[in-house]
Amino acid sequence: xxxxxxxxxxxxxxxxxxxxxxxxxxxxxxxxxxxxxxxxxxxxxxxxxxxxxxxxxxxxxxxxxxxxxxxxxxxxxxxxxxxxxxxxxxxxxxxxxxxxxxxxxxxxxxxxx
Amino acid sequence: xxxxxxxxxxxxxxxxxxxxxxxxxxxxxxxxxxxxxxxxxxxxxxxxxxxxxxxxxxxxxxxxxxxxxxxxxxxxxxxxxxxxxxxxxxxxxxxxxxxxxxxxxxxxxxxx
Lengths: 113, 112
Hints:
heterodimer, A: mainly beta, 4-stranded antiparallel beta sheet, B: mainly beta, 5-stranded antiparallel beta sheet, 11 strands, 0% helix
């Protein structure tokens, strides 16, 4: 059983559409993260959350928003998708005290046309 | 200049070979260092942390040179299953936020 799950796994959408990517975890971790990965650029942090009431912007938060609905759920929204948001998106979790050992979900491949 | 730089490769080596990757980081205040492994089309997974004194885990040895601001990963007796992309990861935040800076990765292909 996967400890960190992401839905959908693949999505093609059109410019201007709103889209939500969801992440759930059964690891019991308090911290959750959203990254995007682009060829040649490595993973970049979009948002992170230490608990349900704590949301923080990462390196590239413009054009994105997040919601931490519960300790186990962290969703990423693109309010109005644009083509340069085409990327591989990963959710990750960690626990306080071991924040650098992060456990990643399988990723969502998003294409914006 | 990227905060964490790696040679993207690919490094093509035969089984049994020893291969080394280097990674440089720009922020001298960086706190901690890691190597993650990412298989093709899969998620990254922590391979090992990198300690100032160097550390070894089986066939893998990681070293840190703070003066020159680089990190290395040595893989001995390469296996086919070592084929993957190796991500150099640095933390520059002293407040334990878990904010990591990822390099673009170095791709290793081990050939029979």
